[in-house]
Amino acid sequence: GGGGGLGVAQWAGAFLEGVTDAKAAVASRGGRPPGRPVLGRVAHLSSLPHVPLLLRTLLAGVLANVMTADSSSDDAGSSVLQQMAPGILGVLSASLQLPVAASLAAALAADQPAPPAALSAAAATATPPSSAAAASASAGSLAEWRMAAKAQTVALEVLTNLAAALLPDDDDADSDDDEQTGPAARLAPQLLAPLLCSPPLLIQLCATCAAPSVEAASAGDSAALELLQERAWVALGNVLLLPSVTGGSGSIDDGTLHTVWSGMLSCLGRLPPTLLEAALAALRAVIDACHAPLQPSAHEAALLYSLVTGTAGGPVRANAVSLLAALACQQGSAATTDVVRVLLERLADPAALVVAAALDGLFDVFAGDSNSSQQQQLARTLDMLSPLRTCLAHMHAYLQAHKKAPRGSGGSSRAQRDERNRVDEAAGNLVRFIDYVEQLRRS
Predict the structure, then answer these.
(1) What is the pTM of this model?
(2) Which among 66, 117, 63, 55 has a CA at the least distance from the CA of 87?
(3) Residues whose CB is less than 8 angstroms from the CB of residue 421 and which lie 6 or more positions away in sequence, other chains included
(4) What residues contact residue 5 under an 8 Å CB cut-off, 6+ apart?
(5) How far, in Å, are 238, 326, 383, 422, 439 from residue 373 at the CA level?
(6) By CB count within 10 A, which of 179, 261, 269, 422 is most buried?
(7) Phi, psi dihedrals of residue 64, rounded to the nearest 5°
(8) How far from the centroid of its chain's Cα atoms is residue 275's Cα?
(9) Cβ–Cβ under 8 Å, residues 106 and 141
């Protein structure tokens, strides 16, 4: 009903106030408040490190979800959103600032005995702490780290979902969503997108992505670390796709984007394979958002080439191909020749995703007007026609083997029909591109 966002905000405030009251009661009486066992347990949790921030982060996520989906017909939700938007992003930012990697390193260091050479004479004669006390301290440090990691992971999930909810839908023009959503949902992009696209938040996300690797205490902790970093890459990629970044009128300047780009590339070589797909997608988003050319170092360029031709999965190779093509379009230099050669080689890749990315890259490189003379020279000098014609033959063979089934016959699934349509469209584009290259070679 009306004022849904307001109701949730009031509930959230009352809940947090209840935690504070219960905690104060415990402190003043030296124990759990009689007759209030639930709040007593909440108060106990709130006294643990990072738990209050974790609770606020969870509530910020609830509020963000309600505000972006509120279908109320009055302006109560809009009013609440205007008041709560900075607070929501403030809580998420506070969680991102938690030194998760450093906390884990400190917890693991506390679990290790000091080397004998580091012991002073006084320390050597002092009574050592009991093994039970040392184990308790170590367990406490690890528990504190796990709470910090959980708070930061939740914040990253909220940011990822929030940015995805604020992305414009290609079908918006054909839908009547504006008639079904309330003022709060329509106001959310105006208020939240600029806050999401602030340079400090981008720098924080980048720092989380580039956090130094730490050998985790257990398999569970290792999985938690990897999940946290994956969420950071996905969140950063989603935020960079927002119109406030890509539209040119946002608050993100090219200097900030260059800083983010450098920070992301610096850690690419030490990422596990499971994070590469999200990392490369985020890097591509930086290229699309930045107006000034981005120039990787020779080492970084070599790393990107190795990802294209290496043993990584198809999605990783496809993202690396797309990234190289986007860089070539930006740079407009001799590096374009090397990239075009790689794109032509990838037309024979066994993964359809990589072939599609290579074709899109070729079309983008030769569609620009900034270096038309260089592009025409490339088309004349490189052996492009042979791999292009081979690729087209494979496409025609695929289309022949997957002929359209009569409507309503149930001969193919929707996914199969969509894939066939994509291949059909790509084949048509490739025919026109081959004609373009042939004309250039004849001229």
Answers:
(1) 0.74
(2) 63
(3) none
(4) 63, 66, 67, 70, 72, 76, 77, 80, 81, 184
(5) 36, 19, 17, 31, 14
(6) 261
(7) -60, -40
(8) 10
(9) yes
